[in-house]
Amino acid sequence: MAFADSCNFEKLNNNNYKQWKFNIKMQLLNLGLIEFVNKQEPVLNAEATKADKQNFELRKAKALSTICLSIDENLKSIVYNIDSPVAALQEIENVFEPRSRARIGALRTKFLNILFLPSDTMSSYIGKISQAAKDLENAGKVIPDDEIAYQMLANLPRSYDNLVMQLYQLDDVNFTSLNIQKSLLAEYDRVTVREKSEARPKEPAVFSIESAVSRKKNSTKEFKERRKCFFCGTVGHIRKNCWKFKNANKMPTHQQRKPPTFMQDELSNPAVFYASAYCTQSMDIEFVIDSAATEHFVNDINLFTNFQKLSSSASMAEGTTSILGKGDVSLEIMDNSGKVSLLLKNVLYAPQMMRNLISLRKFDLAHYSILVKNFKMIIRTPRNRLFLTVPLIDKFYVIKANVIKMQNDSAAYISDKDGIELWHARFGHLNMQGLKDFSKSNNVYGLENLKGNVDKCDTCCLTKSSRASFPNIDKIRTQHVLELVHMDIWGPAPVKSLGGAEYFYSIIDD
Question: Domain CCHC-type spans what residues (predicted)?
Fold first, then answer.
């Protein structure tokens, strides 16, 4: 009982054989009895004295009792009638590690399916492979050393792909499990040190970027007095607190109602726009930020705030793309810090383009800074303030924005001729006099003071044209039957005839 109390590890049961096997060997090693469980049991010399023989038998019995007393009561029947420590361990091994093809097959499957789990370290991963190879060896199947090396490289995370390809280039002499183990441990230590370094808190930035959210939360009197109302133009309050703005919206009439105003603080975002006009929004239009594009491109004419027709072409990577016009496109982007407004100038209209493109070169020319990191593109203003964060979607950096279309009193980008042609088409090709009457009477909000005239409208000419009549034939030109036959086939008919026919075939003799 005294020894049972000194056994400081779990006794052998049906679930802990591997751990027990290691513990019992360490226990025997600690007691100086490990020699009695080697494959060849020690033998005394013929010259040994009686005292040496008694000491030898005492130590052998102690080794056997150490093994037997570390076994659970339910399993002690395995070592009944055993009088040798070597025989006792061998009998236990035969029960828990039987040498059969079924066991070898199970251990081999386990060996091949060892994965590098997120919770693993490189040492534990290599240890699992080495232990599985050792188990196979104990079961009678020796795994070649190069197979162990291949298994170490087989199921690593993708971040190790470059190292794996380098190790595959080793010659047969150097491609050993020991060399592979050293390389993997060194790479794991290097990556771990780098990740710990990146996780350290960074130094405070020299320039602090004041976000729109923080400015809204700033409620000090000094800050409020510096703000300007964009409705009445008075310094000291903002539009939502402006009493003139509130009174103007209480009872909107036909004469008082004004178009909505869109704006942003120029100090917080240089790429802003201000427009006093009615607007419509196209929701979630995708724009790809392209580092190879020298200009902005869109493939939908309805996205333009204003538009000017062109007749030229631009050279693209896939060939020559027709450019039918250019204009401005106003975007409203939802970012983590709120809404961001962006005005794209001189955007080219190319209907054949598969995607809408925003030129990264244009940002660079405007002295914006761009940083690509962790599957995101971070764009900062020339004053080093955060402007926009663009995510990586399907190998492209994509902006999803609302496109704001405006019709205002300024037509700086559209000629008089283009303007009157545009409104002529918008009003269903209304006659010129009626269109000018609308413009002069101010009955239509947003309709500018139209000038000029439409010289020629292709649509009007086509819809008002009529076909010339066929000439009358006063005599039959043919001389006999079947000399001239007119034949035609029509179908398939949307509804079958009573006989089930779908086509009509006519034959008319002249």
Answer: 227-242
**Cβ proximity of 80 and 51 under 8 Å:** no
Residue 244 · residue 232 · CB < 8 Å: yes
DSSP 241: G
Closest-CA residue to 227 (of 216, 241, 237): 237
The pair of three-digit structure tokens given for residue 473, joined into one six-digit string: 């034939």
In a domain, 249, yes or no: no
Backbone φ and ψ of 23, nearest 5°: -65, -40
Least confident of 58-62, 188-192, 417-421, 484-488: 417-421
What's the CATH number where 296 sits? 2.40.70
361: burial class by Cβ within 10 Å (0-12, 13-18, 19+)?
A: middle
Residues 113 and 83 in one domain: no
In percent, the amount of the chain with pLDDT more than 70 equals: 77
The whole-number pLDDT of residue 410 equals: 39
Question: Using an 8 Å Cβ cutoff, are 314 and 350 in contact?
Answer: yes
Of 403, 433, 456, the domain-final residue: 403
CA 251, 253, 255 angle in degrees (round to 5)?
135
What's the number of domains the chain is made of?
4
**Looking at 32, 64, 97, which one is the last position of a domain?**
97
Which residue range forms the structural domain that includes residue 448? Answer: 419-464
Residues 330 and 352 in one domain: yes
Contact 183, 165 (CB under 8 A): no
Residue 455 lies in a domain: yes
Provide the pLDDT for residue 148.
92
Taking CA 398 as the corner, what is the angle to CA 393 and CA 400, rounded to the nearest 5 degrees? 115
Question: What pLDDT digit, counting tens, does each position of 406-458 carry?
Answer: 544 433 344 455 577 778 887 888 787 788 777 777 667 666 677 777 767 87
Tell me the residue type at 137.
Answer: E
Contact 141, 112 (CB under 8 A): no
Verify that 385 and 445 share a domain, yes or no: no
DSSP string, 253-269: -TTT----EE---TTT-
User: In this structure, how many other beta carbons lie within 10 angstroms of the beta carbon of residue 302?
Assistant: 11
- Residue 292 located in a structural domain: yes
Q: State the CB neighbour count (10 A cutoff) for residue 444.
A: 14
pLDDT digits (tens, 9 = 90+) for 84-142: 888 888 888 888 877 778 878 888 898 999 999 888 899 999 999 998 898 888 778 88
Higher pLDDT, 326 or 214: 326
Beta bridge partners of 453: none
Q: How far apart are CA 37 and CA 30, in angstroms?
A: 13
